[in-house]
Design brief:
Layout (H helix, E strand, L loop, with lengths): L8 H11 L3 H8 L3 H8 L6 H11 L3 H6 L8 H12 L11 H17 L6 H18 L3 H21 L3 H6 L3
Helix pairs in contact: 2-3, 2-4, 4-7, 7-8, 7-9, 8-9
Length: 175
């Protein structure tokens, strides 16, 4: 599927819904109300937790859904892995997908940047948060490791903000 014209969140959400059976089907997969999907289609912006749920349900990249940057999907291999994870019962080596953790990462990064009075747009902050989320979940194997990594990421971002590291460098810095 081509990402086509995806300048706004509503545009990107329409593309996602086109790949699903309907707005209702997407809402059910994301475990949110259909009326909320309709509000987003009318121009409202989702909260971070809802954004993570929609991206996971539609199997699209968080960064693309939030900002329109990068490819819509991570690629055939990532889709296959996501499908396998969803159909495989969780084990000690494959923790379940955690939509709440994704929302927690995004909310924590956003709160940090606001508390530090960073002069970045919400889209720029979201892109950084989503990059950090992807770094954490691809590196950490357990929920406990994810929590530790989140603290380390937030600590490093705070240090970077206070030392005047540019937004671009912050977005590109590894956890």
């Amino acid at each position: 599927m081509s990402a086509g014209n995806s300048e706004t969140f509503a545009d990107r959400l329409r593309l996602v819904i086109d790949a699903e059976e309907s707005a209702l089907a997407l809402a059910r997969k994301a475990e949110i109300g259909e009326s909320l999907i309709r509000r987003y289609l009318s121009g409202s912006e989702p909260g971070l937790d809802k954004l993570v749920r929609i991206a996971a349900a539609a199997r699209v990249r968080l960064e693309w859904l939030a900002t329109g940057e990068g490819p819509m999907r991570a690629g055939k291999m990532a889709e296959t892995l996501a499908s396998a994870v969803e159909s495989t019962p969780p084990t000690a080596t494959s923790p379940p997908l955690d939509h709440h953790f994704g929302g927690k990462v995004c909310a924590a990064v956003l709160a940090l940047y606001r508390a530090e009075n960073a002069r970045l747009s919400n889209d720029q902050i979201m892109a950084i948060a989503l990059e950090k989320y992807e770094e954490i979940v691809t590196t950490a194997e357990t929920p406990e490791e994810r929590q530790v990594m989140l603290k380390l990421v937030l600590s490093q971002l705070t240090k970077d903000l206070r030392s005047g590291v540019s937004a671009t460098a912050q977005g590109n810095r590894s956890a």
